[in-house]
Every structure is written in structure tokens, then in C-alpha cells.
Amino acid sequence: MPPHPVRVTAVDTYDVRFPTSRGLDGSDAMNPDPDYSAAYVVLRTDAADGHEGHGFAFTIGRGNDVQVAAIEALRGHLVGRSADELCADPSVLNRDLVGDSQLRWLGPEKGVMHMAIGAVVNALWDLAAKRADKPLWRLLAEADPAWLVRQVDFRYLTDALTPEEALALLRRGREGAGERTARLLEHGYPAYTTSPGWLGYDDDKLARLAARAVADGFRQIKLKVGADLEDDVRRCRVARAAVGPHVRIALDANQRWDVAEAIRWTGALAAFDPYWIEEPTSPDDVLGHAAVRRAVAPVRVATGEHVQNRVVFKQLLQAGALDVVQIDAARVGGVPENLAVLLLAAKFGVPVCPHAGGVGLCELVQHLSMFDYVALTGTTEDRVIEYVDHLHDHFLDPVVIRDGRYTAPRAPGFSAAMRPESLARFTYPDGAFWAADPDTQKEKEQAA
Ligand SMILES: [Mg+2]
After folding, report:
1. Which CATH superfamily hosts domain 8-135?
2. d(CA 432, ligand 1 centre) in Å
3. Which of 54, 355, 367, 394 is an active site residue?
4. Best label site of 159, 287, 355, 398, fewest CB within 10 Å?
5. Dist. CA 228–CA 256, nearest whole Å
6. What confidence category does residue 2 fall into, taking pLDDT thresholds of 50, 70 and 90?
């Protein structure tokens, strides 16, 4: 008798919300009161190993239920399918989900539906890495380059990057990978911290946290800007005084400005030697970013956390619109589309400094940067992963930062799994935390 084939038996979803708005953690010019949330998905199989695939889309509160509904709309593509086949070639699922001809109308490849696809695809990669008994960065770094190329959807990319060029980049990237793996395991990957710079923090808290970041080994911090220019000038002065002249200060406007305003505002802060200006304007405005970049140099332009898909990244690179590519592990269509963006950035020679923070974004995206270092670009020069120091305790395999650097994960998987007790407590609106919150229960009654 052949062994019983392993099937996907369930796609469980959770609307998980953390009340971060109460401490103004995460506050910026566009998002003054985020409740960091995860539309969370667990793929279960009937395998005896008990492995599950965990993934999520990150949102900031209201709308997380909409995001969960979008994930549930994909259930029919998963339940009953062979887990062995899906894990052997995850690109099959990717193509099925992106290619669902009716759901595609809701995008294509953008917005809530595409983020749902990213969550499910990432959950499958988590499962595949657990079954391979490797952390995801290592699974990617040790995969056959031809197999990796097959994971990427090159549709709409070939005018900038062909599969043959990608294969050449990956083959070259593999040279010396063993040595870099050893270095990564010993020294980790450089990080920068946004924790001092939330817009809702007062000057004393900013100065204290900025000085502490330097003492903790960080060589770059980030400040939120864009609500009030006078405040920003003062806060930049406070931060620069706290960190000294040699630590990089990045600025983040979270899409607040029109193009001319972005140029004027960034110019007014240039005296404080900002390293980059992040999301100066709409994430869809390729030519606007290019205009800002020409005008504010040598300040760099960084963007990407809200870029919808690989096509927009391609255009940003083709138009010379950015100096720093900021992938987000949970926004585009998951691991394979982020592979496409890493390959594009490598081809154009632009460094990737991922967006992280939120819920679990640090846990996920570290794997992609570590793969890039070990087996694609081979360098960490001018590359840093964002770090924000909250909500990690809800994860089973939380990030470990040592001396301003991410320590390489060793546990198998994508570091995506949340603690069961956190899922139970913060499920909205009926988990223990929200059930005890009178405002939440009042809203629930009104909705009913
Ligand atoms: Mg940002």
C-alpha cells in the first residue's frame, strides 16, 4: 500500500488586534492611533508530524475583519489539496490564487485580496520550511537556483528582468554562500530602530529612547515627520543632539505630502543630515517619487512598504525613483513576489532595507534579508532591517536583537507562529481582552 497522501484539512482564521493606540506606539503623521492587528491564518494537514503553516496580513485595526474575510475566500483553493505537492512546488498555489479569474477582479494583484494571498502563500512557505526542518532563510539560501526562479512569476517583469538573468544572479549569489552563512550565524544582520521616533512621543521620551538606541548598538534610528514642520525641526534637533553626528537618522513621512511639499519639507530638515526620506508621497506615484529624489539628493528616497506588487517596484526602479527598496513581508503576494522584488533590486543595484514593526513583520522579513545576504547580493553594506521593540512576546520564535543586529533564526519555519494564549486573548471582539473592554462591547451591540 502506498503511504496515505498528506492533505490540507483546514484553513483556520483569526481576527487578532492589539490595543497599541492606547500608548501612541506606532503613531505617525498618517496613522495617529493604530491598533496593530493581524488577519491570521493557520493551514492544518492530516500529517502525523502535526506541522501547521502560519501566516498573516498586518493591518492597523478596523478592517481587519475585512482582511480575514478575504483570506476565507481563498479556502476552496486549499482544503483537500496535497500538502506534499504544494510544499514541493509552492508556485502552483501562488499561480492558482493570483489567477482565480473571479477574485482577480478585486485587484488585480493589489489591495485586500492580494494581501490575503500573501498571508496564505506565506503560511504555505512556513509549512514547507517546517517540513524541510529549516528556517525559511536557509531553505531559500540552499534551494536549487533553477527551482527558485520557477517560484517567481515573471509576467509583467521581463522588460526589466528575465528568468535567465535571475538565474545568473542566483548562481553568482551562491558563490561563497557557506562562508556567509557562518558569518550570519555568528554576527547576525544589521538593524535600525524606529522605537524612539513615534510622532506621539514627547521630546524627553524621544531623546531618552534615541540615546538608549545608540547605547544598545544601533547605528541608525528613524523619526516620524510630516504633521507640523516646526515640530519636526525641533524633534530633529533633539534627536541629532541625542545620537551625535555619526549615527544615521532616517525620516518617515508616511505618504503625507504632495510632491512640491515633500521637496520643501525635506529641504527644511536637511540641516540635520537625514539619511533618507521615507514615503514622501503616494506609494503609487512613481514619477512623483522620481521628482522628489532628483530634488532632495543627497538625501535618499526610500519607499515600498505600501507598494502593491512587483510591477510598481519594477517601475520605481526603472524610473530611478528611489535609493532604498523597502519590501514588506506581508504586503505583496508573499515570499515569491518578494523574491521577485529582491531580484529586481539586485539587478538595479539598489539596496533593500525592509519595512518591519507592526505585528510580526520583523519576525517574517528577517528571513528574506538573510537569504539576500547569503545567496543573492552577498552584502549587508548600506542594508538594515527595521526594528520596533513591541509585541514580540506574542510569538513562539520571536526575533532576537543583539548589539543592534538581528540574530539569525534557527528554528524551522518562517517565525510566524503566535502563541495560542495570545491568539485567544486578543481575538476581536470576543477574546478575553476585548470582551472586558466596554467600548468594544458597545460597538458590537450596535453592529448587531
Ligand atoms: Mg514607514
Report:
1. Enolase-like, N-terminal domain (3.30.390.10)
2. 31
3. 355
4. 159
5. 11
6. low
- Delimit the CATH 3.30.390.10 region(s) of the chain: 8-135
pLDDT tens for each residue of 58-100: 999 999 999 999 999 999 999 999 999 999 999 999 999 999 9
Tell me, in angstroms, the distance from the centre of ligand 1 to residue 355's CA. Answer: 7
Residue 390 annotated as catalytic: no
Distance 26 CA to ligand 1 centre (A): 10
Angle formed by the axes of helices 286-296 and 259-268, nearest 10°: 30
Summarised one tens digit per residue, pLDDT across range 91-132 is: 999 999 999 999 999 999 999 999 999 999 999 999 999 999
What's the pLDDT tens digit per position in 216-239? 999 999 999 999 999 999 999 999
Measured between alpha carbons, how far is 286 from 312 in angstroms, rounded to an integer? 8
Q: What are phi and psi of 389, to 5 degrees?
A: -95, 50
Cα three-residue angle 273-277-282, rounded to 5 degrees: 160
- Indicate the class that CATH gives domain 177-421: alpha beta
Question: What is the rounded distance in angstroms from the CA atom of residue 291 to the CA atom of residue 320?
Answer: 9
Supply 347's cell numbers: 539587478
Distance of CA 21 from the midpoint of ligand 1 (Å): 17
Measured between its terminal Cα atoms, the distance across the chain in Å is: 53
CA distances from 406 to 58, 222, 304, 328 (A): 21, 17, 21, 16
